[in-house]
Amino acid sequence: MTAGDSNKEPIIQVKNISKQYNIGMDRTYKTFAESFTNLLKSPIKSLKSIGYQHDTFWALKDINFNVNRGEVVGIIGRNGAGKSTLLKILSRITSPTEGEIHLKGRVGSLLEVGTGFHPELTGRENIYFNGAILGMKKKEIDNKFDEIVKFSGVEKFLDTPVKRYSSGMQVRLAFSVAANLDPEILIVDEVLAVGDAAFQKKCLGKMGEVAESGRTVLFVSHNMGAIRKLCSRTILLKDGNVIKNSETDETINYYLKSSEEVTDSIIKLPRENSNPLGSGLYLKILNSCQEPQTIFKIGENWYIDFSFRIFKEISHVIAGVGIITIDSIPIASYHSKPQDLSPGIYHVKFHFNIPLTANALQFVVGLTTYEKNFYYHQNIGFIEISDISINEQPFRTRGTGLLLTEQIATIEKLSECNNFF
């Protein structure tokens, strides 16, 4: 076989992969003594529980695709589509229920904050620990060490246990380790959204370098601009199935133009575990009648209702939401007036009445104070502005700058038992 032929041979082969999970399962840990005591106290109940059939859920079903050496492939889909499960199988964190995968070469993966790190070890020790897992010799890691540290920007905390790192610091170090230890296959999940905008841009640039060097990249993201920029081919997942596997533009256009695929009108926000002050809960997209909707006509009024939880008393809280295009061009930013908040659940509603060009749009939401930004989520959902205006005369704008608005919204407290839906 010639060198040219070997480059065409798939470096990743996924054959009939399925993953099943049990749901409704009692995960309470019991010692042998406790189990034996329960059997003596309630023998019939205990024996029935042994044969109890739990409900099952297929996170993935009959997934098939190949990835060639040097190819950059995007994976997109709504929350719960099976993207993270697929990457965990490819990273050998979990095993498939059915099917098989074939990987050729070392795999570097960044899936969740702290994945692959031992919390009691320092940043320095974890770099060598991860290198050893990849099968690298100490001398090889030594040659890459300074580059890893410089890229991560955690020099001052290199000899501090990783458990004391913020989530942002953990992500910076984890990505730097995964990308700089020369894996043949680099797998990156949406975890990059935890980092700040400057670091996200830096990571995307690094993934571009990895791809140009001939290595293989699998990239999961809700940022369609990043997917378009990096990936030559993109796979769309829905309900654990491959819906589309084609050139990136074709897959993204299919994803955004399908009314079912644009977004949920009620989006549950991922929890920022390292944030002691506050956390987002839900984002609701509403039409002028306060009804859930994701497709709007040019000129039509619509609302975003952002709910969040505050963990302790904090002054000058500001809630904000921004709109960006799928190519990450900022369009508008709305924010609330600063308010002093006590612990509880709150929401703020933003009214959008600016004329927007027909396009698919993404959202950025966040909570901040005068002192610092303490909650931030980017690219959490999509809406589509259609070509047909209300008065049949489409109004189009071409501006690409950020439109900052007045402090128009007021934060209101919700009852703990409030039904977000």
Search tags:
single chain, 421 residues, alpha/beta, 7-stranded mixed sheet, 6-stranded mixed sheet, disordered N terminus, disordered C terminus
What's the CATH H-level superfamily name of the domain at 266-414? abc- transporter (atp binding component) like domain
Helix content: 10-25%
Q: Sheet with the most strands? A: 7 strands, mixed
Strand residue percentage: 35-45%
List the uncertain runs: 1-6, 387-404, 417-421
Broad shape: globular
**CATH architecture tag of the domain at 266-414:** Distorted Sandwich
CATH-defined topology of the domain at 266-414: Coagulation Factor XIII, Chain A, domain 1
Distance between the termini: 59 Å
Q: What is the count of β-strands?
A: 21
Radius of gyration: 24 Å
| Oligomer status | single chain
Question: Number of DSSP helices?
Answer: 10
CATH class category of the domain at 266-414 = Mainly Beta
Mean pLDDT: 76
Break the fold down into its secondary structure elements and pairings:
Layout: H1 3-8, E1 10-23, H2 32-41, H3 43-50, E2 55-68, E3 72-76, H4 83-90, E4 98-103, E5 107-110, H5 123-133, H6 138-152, H7 167-180, E6 185-188, H8 197-212, E7 216-220, H9 224-230, E8 233-238, E9 241-247, H10 248-257, E10 266-268, E11 278-287, E12 295-297, E13 302-310, E14 314-325, E15 330-336, E16 339-341, E17 344-352, E18 359-368, E19 373-386, E20 403-409, E21 412-414
Parallel strand pairs: 3-7, 3-8, 5-6, 6-7, 12-19, 15-20
Antiparallel strand pairs: 1-2, 1-4, 8-9, 10-11, 11-13, 13-17, 14-15, 14-16, 14-18, 17-21, 18-19
Helix pairs in contact: 2-3, 5-6, 6-7, 7-8
